[in-house]
Amino acid sequence: MPELPEVETTRRGIAPHVEGREIVEAIVRQPRLRVPVPEDFIERLVGSRIGTLSRRAKYLLLPIEDEGRASTGSLIWHLGMSGSLRIARLGELPKKHDHVDLVFDDGAILRYHDPRRFGFVDWLAGSAERDPRLANLGPEPLSDAFDGERLYQLSRGRRMAVKPFLMDNAVVVGVGNIYASEALFLAGIDPRRAAGRISRERYARLAAAIREVLAAAITQGGTTLRDFVSGTGEPGYFKQRLNVYGRHGQGCRRCNGELRLVTLGQRASVFCPSCQT
Which residues are catalytic? Predict the structure, then answer.
């Protein structure tokens, strides 16, 4: 599933090709996504322009502006488990599972590909902050609103394991399975440890590790495990730097001890019993 670095990589990849461009055609080949494509999708978009793209958690937000550059709403896009947005050109034939195209005045095409159809594109008429999908989200992990003190305070009295605690979007957004595993390894924290039994000092290290892991993954273009490619069609290379995720049974890169696999919150978690306590 594309996580925060993959979505941010997509935003950065497609932004130069779509921001300020006029939509001259919208094509919907498959409207039956996780959220059905709005019936007035084409009518709303043709003749309008794309504003400055943004990201909130794993959602991409594409502001839609009229000819006078006044806002008329936004598209909210989620890549689901297997979705990707890439830039194509006129004459480039769609592939199987290419469900939605936005065609721009310079011949560029924003093309949505999603084999499993767990993603969606929807219309936001009002403020994005009021949308129920976004209203109750925690802070962005790379923002000033996120730090170890927040983790420490929210974790008091919590018996749940620290890894699913980190993956709660009300605590912090965008720390999915891959990056939670990697951050806990860097911070030396056992993913099974109760969230409420971790000290303020260790949470400070964990917050710093989350920032470090996510920033590095964005720089590397995300992590390609199965389906993800960037907005320009390139795979992500952070997989080559993974310390624990997907490496159970292999040797720890620090101590060479065998990495173990456990299940936490119905998700596989790999860790080093020696380096993570």
Answer: 2-3, 58, 267
Task: Indicate the pTM of the whole model.
Answer: 0.87
**Amino acid letter at 69?**
R
pLDDT per residue as tens, the chain (277 positions)? 688 998 999 999 999 999 999 999 999 999 999 999 999 999 999 999 999 999 999 999 999 998 877 888 999 999 999 999 999 999 999 999 999 999 999 999 999 999 999 999 999 987 787 899 999 999 999 999 999 999 999 999 999 999 999 999 999 999 999 999 999 999 999 999 999 999 999 999 999 999 999 999 998 875 543 443 445 555 444 456 799 999 999 999 999 999 999 999 999 999 999 999 9
Q: What would the DSSP string read from start to end of 40-69?
A: THHHHHTT-EE---EEETTEEEEEEE-TT-
Cβ contact 19:51 at 8 Å? yes
Distance (Å, whole) CA 185 – CA 197? 17
* Residue 54 backbone dihedrals phi, psi, to 5 degrees: -140, 170
Residue 233: other Cβ atoms inside 10 A: 12
* Residue that is written with structure tokens 């709303």 in the block: 44
Give the residue among 181, 189, 218 at the shortest CA–CA distance from 205: 189
Token reading at 237: 């290379």
